[in-house]
Amino acid sequence: MLTPVSYGDFGPVFDQFKNKPVDAIRYLIGVEQGECINALYRRDIGYIDIVWGYNDLNNKGFGLKHIIEKHGKEIKQLGFEVENFIPILVQYGNLKKSKESDKLLLESEMFRVIIKTVWNGKEKKFLLSAFDLRKEKKSFGISGTSGDRNFTDESLLHQTNDSNKYTNKFEKSSLGSTNRVKIILMC
Question: Residue 49 is inside which H or E element, if any?
Fold first, then answer.
């Protein structure tokens, strides 16, 4: 185990993963405790910590453990590992206001992550939870729409109604010396 810089409300605090969310998630999965501060970054939010958290037998909880145990299979159905999916959704999801002033929502067509902004009365931004919006749409009788949605010129989210399976496909093209990666989700 790495040497923590301190101990906080979520256990050992690790600062070795600044701007390294994939490595931070993998590390927390391995040690099953603590938090990696400043692991995620988004320009309109700032730095976001990733906490291990907890999850009970009824899937009530928060943090990475909760997301993995409650939504890990759904994320794999999309063709991703959790450590890759969370940073993509945080970076490219639409920022939405929450009804609760201490939470931020980042959404795609299919998933939502929640960022908590206050903990024990102090400012702290960390990954709280996630939701599969496909379940919500099904329960309300809403179906997806076809079409393309550009998150940035570096990635593309594509949804189609031709299949119920979710897969991901990485396309690489060379533009001079720059490699571009397009991420395509098909549903």
Answer: strand 46-51
